[in-house]
Amino acid sequence: MTPPPPTAPLASTLDAARSCYADAQTARRAVDLAEPMIEAVLGQHEMCGSGVIAIVVMDPGLQPGDAGFEDAVLHTASFGKPRSQWDADYLEFARAKARTSWRLDASGAKVHAGLAHLLRRGDSLLHGAVVLDGIVVAVSGAESWYDEAIGTAVAANLRAMAWERHARAVRERQSLAC
C-alpha cells in the first residue's frame, strides 16, 4: 500500500492565501505615497500631540480563519519621534486597532458606533482603523479622526496599486492571478 502524499506545509498554504496584488512591497509603497500627508499631520500639534504616527497594514487576502493575526500583518511603519522618545506604545495601539477591525471586518468608527456587542475581552476601544474593500489599515498617534484619514489614504493607495498590478496582468493576457 502506498502512503498518502505528504501534506503541504502550513507556510505554502498560507502563501497561497495571501493577496496576489497587495503584497508587502506594495503596502510599503502605499505608505510611502501617503508620507507627505503623514508629515503634515505630524507638523500640527493640534492634530498629533504625540509627535508619532504608527501604521499597521493587514494582508487583504488573509481572513481570521486563514491565519493568525501576526501572520496576516503585511507591513508596519512609524514616523516622527524615535521610539525611545514615545510616551506610549503607539505601534501596539495600532496593532490592537488592526486586530479588532480585521477580526470584525469593520472600521473602528463602525465598531464603536454600533457593533459593541461583538467586542471581546481585550479588544481595542480606540478609533483609528479603517476597512476599505477588505483592506484593513490601523493608525495610532494622532487624533482619531486624523488616524482614520491617514489609514484611508494608505488603504486607497494600496487598492489603487493592486488595481494597477491587476490591470497590467490583464493587459499581458495572464489567465491566472500572479
Which helices and strands appear, and what pairs or packs with what?
Elements: H1 10-17, H2 24-42, E1 52-58, H3 69-72, E2 73-80, H4 90-104, H5 108-114, E3 129-132, E4 135-140, H6 144-171
Antiparallel strand pairs: 1-2, 1-4, 3-4
Helix pairs in contact: 2-6
How would you portray this structure in words?
The protein has 178 residues and is of the alpha+beta class. The protein has a single domain, classed as Beta-Lactamase (2-Layer Sandwich), CATH 3.30.450. The protein is built from six helices and four strands. It has helices at residues 10-17, 24-42, 69-72, 90-104, 108-114, 144-171; strands at 52-58, 73-80, 129-132, 135-140. A four-stranded antiparallel β-sheet has the order 2-1-4-3. A hairpin with a 2-residue loop joins strand 3 (129-132) and strand 4. Helix 2 runs antiparallel to helix 6 (144-171). The longest helix is centred in the last third of the chain and has 28 residues, at 144-171. It is globular and about 65 Å long.
Name a few traits of the molecule:
178 residues; alpha+beta; Beta-Lactamase; 14% strand
